[in-house]
Structures are given as C-alpha cells and as structure tokens.
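User: Could you check the structure of this?
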Amino acid sequence: MKTVVVRNISRADANVVKRLGALGVATVHEAYGRFGLMKPYMRPIWAGGEAAGTAVTVLAQPGDNWMIHVAVEQCQPGDLLVVGCTADNTDGMFGDLLATSLMARGVRGLVIDAGCRDVKSLKEMGFPVWSKAISAKGTVKATLGAVNVPVVCAGINVFPGDAVVADDDGVVVVRGKEAAAVAAKAEKRQADEDGKRRQLASGVLGLDMYKMREALAKAGLVYTDEPEAD
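Assistant: Sure, the predicted structure tokens are below.
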C-alpha cells in the first residue's frame, strides 16, 4: 500500500450530485442497475440524516484515525468523506471534533466502515454519519494510510470524486463518469413511480397495475372459497 495523499482529483458534477441526492438511495440504486449499494450494516447514526456529495476517500488502519485528520485538508465544499479500513474494525474513529473541522470546509457528511462516537453531539450539529458501529472506544494516530486512492468501503469500490448518496435506506455510490446518465434514469423512474403511487392511492391493486394475475395463474396459484380441511 502506498502511503500517499492525492491532492488533485476529478469530481462528479455538483449539479448532477444534487439531482441524485434529491432522488434518494433506493431510486438511485435501482436506476444504476441495482449496483453500488454498500452492505446494509452501514446505518445512519441518527434517523433522518441525508447527504449527497463527491467522495474524498481515506484508507485507514484499524483503530487509527490519523489519515482522517490528513484528509480534512483535501476536502472542498460539497464533498463527502468515505473511509475504508485495511482490516475489520469497529472502534470509534470519528467524533464531534473531526465533524467540526469537516463542517468548516463544507463537507456534507461521512461514510465510515468502522465505528463512530459522540452521536448526541453529531445529531445536534446536524452532521450526518453512516457507520458500521457506534463505539466509544478511542483510537490512536500512529500508522500511515492513504487519501484519495480507490478504497473498498462496506463491499463497494469507491473512487475519489465518485457521487455518493446516503439516507435512511443506506449508502449508494455512482462512478463519476456515469453519474449524469444514472441521474436521468433515476428521474424517469421517479416520475413513473409517482404515477403508480397515484393509481395505488386511488384504490387500484398492484395485482392489476402490474398485470400479475395471468402470471400468477400460470405459476399455479389457485383461488378457492372453500377452506382446507384439517
């Protein structure tokens, strides 16, 4: 592993990232061909948090948050910090002091495949975090990692500058060069779902709206008014 900080990265278009954020994780994930979704153990530390930004990536050693401090300097307004670890870890590698520093640089939130602490303070600050665990266990600053290199975070390869969307449904990552196309597909999908939602609200059944009845019959589903005998 190279212990390097890459200072100049290509970021996904900010307007495209904003469009993706307005659509939400589930819609973006579906529009992306059901790709890019981090493992479901990545949860928001407080409900209702939402964030969309361009990835500044960190490869950190377990229980060591040194490189997170290094990464703060590389962040710009609209970024979202994504931290992967070289080995499985749940220590509380991030808290309110680092969040204060990130907020001062306009960072939208944090995604970390490790632990987070100071949850009450982070909620009061309005700084959203998605983490593998919540843990008060402290960390050290002893071993180098890397900043703005490709990392694996919760099972997904994240490249610097990728578009990242996070909410109560989880975290999805879209490659920067594909972000505009995915946003267009996701907006079309949302418009289609809005139409379906209106039909369902009017009382139309999903069985009929999706034309399921014939397929169910072919699969062998039988309706009867006679209860089965004991």
